Fold this protein.
Amino acid sequence: MFSAFQELVTGLRESHERLSGLVSSLQAMDVTQPAYPSDWTIADTLSHLGSGAEITLLILRHARGDGMEPAQADYVEIWDRWNAKKPSDQAADSIAVDGVLVKEIEALDPESRPSLQAYGSKMALTDFLAMRLDEHVIHTWDIEAGLGRSAKIDAARLPHLLGRLDKAAARSGIAQPEAWAMRIAVAEPQARFHVRFGERTTLTVDEESGSPDLTLPAETFVRLVFGRVASSEISGRWNAETEDALSRLHTMFRGY
């Protein structure tokens, strides 16, 4: 467990530093620009990460015996308070509270507290922190993409996201009236997946031999499952067979 915990701590620290460096270069007007998806501004996205950091801190502190277990009313109060902030304050405060969270996580002893109570159920500490890292990495990309930069998901975090892509697919996949499946190979890093659609979406490691139905960069496939591949990335950039497969998959993942 300690090794997995340390990898998550490193990931959260490095993702925080990446986001902090990005936000420090922004002007007040920059944070009012649309992020990705465009129905949120960059400030909205940072507000979401900031309120999430506060909630995560409440849960961690309760696990240490400090305070009551957070209830839905506590979450609503936090969300309302963050939504009421000015965009510039949402940006600055998000980085500040995220830094506090990372420091508290770095100080945790995973051996003495391997699990905690979160969102009404008992969770392994590593699963809880992995959820935060998922969110942090993806929303950092949302901000970079909103700034019109050549945004790429942090390559150092791709193995982490690939290892949890089954959970993202189950949440992001759209129910289909007829079952169908696709075998997908990704590169940099290499992995193979079997995704099945129907009443629910499942994604498993593909251990079968033979050629996959689709081959993609790992970064593209991760964004696809998280609903973060634009239509403009599909048309005219691949061969016809790949475009057809991508177009179909593109409609299957709503993102979150």
